[in-house]
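subagent[fold] <- orchestrator: predict structure for attached chain, return tokens only, no commentary.
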Amino acid sequence: MTRSRWLALGVGLLAAACAGTDGALMTWREYKDLDHPIPYVVRLSHPAGGELLFFGSRHSFQPEHPQTGQIMGLWEEFRPTLAFFEGGGPVVPPGDTLETAIRRGAEPGLVRYLAQRDGVRVESPEPDAAAEVANLSGRFTAEQIKLFYVLRQVSQYLTYEGRDLGAPLEERVQDALDAIGGYPGLEGRPRDLEELETVSRELLPTLDGWRNVTREYFRPNPDAPVLFTNSIAAETGDFRDLHIIERITDAVRSGERLFIVMGSSHAVRQERPLRREIQGQAPRQRADSRATRAPG
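subagent[fold] -> orchestrator:
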């Protein structure tokens, strides 16, 4: 798909979402009070022969989590020709065993492990990081953007039980500062842990230091008044989902049997446009809405 076609799709979906049009990307206002099952699985077929299995997961670094067996079972049943995993990172598993792959890479690690084991092509459908940052520029300062990405990574380090960081927390946070500092426009503060502490207290005084960050700072929320981190999360969430919808649609329309695992919120929010783009229909009504909501 050309860049102009992608931009047209993105503008069209965002405009439709704002108007509440059927078949559009679900808005954060729609999503925030929604109950849905986890896992949330969407299966679609294209008339030309391509198929999609989208497993909306709960993020977990625990190999013994029940969804590990669920993902592996669906993988065996579906027999994909192409797999997508959430986030960036290498396309090979981060460890030699299934357990290590999950403890270091959660569900993306599991997908990479299965793909390498079975010789299946595997890719990240995420937008280019520089494009994502550029999309935020002008509405947020460089320090706000950089702090958002670094602290979001810190919250993931601190939140998920069973995660193997492979190094002390401070070393991993410095690695994140160095990596994110390589994005165009984000070369400035914070560059080290001391500056991270200073900038965190300046821009997020209620946080009381970077080590106290929680996932609540990154709940997408388009409503005011909110912290800039919540607003950036909503902006980046829309940007990512629109890009991923394009990647999924192109793959399935070209005849791939696409297996994708992402957090459940992505599957729920993308279902309407995916059904429209792949099957030309609105989503069916879900009978089970009793499960506890937990954004993935």
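orchestrator: received. Logging for downstream: The beta strands are 40-45, 51-57, 82-85, 121-123, 257-263. The first strand starts at residue 40 and ends at 45.
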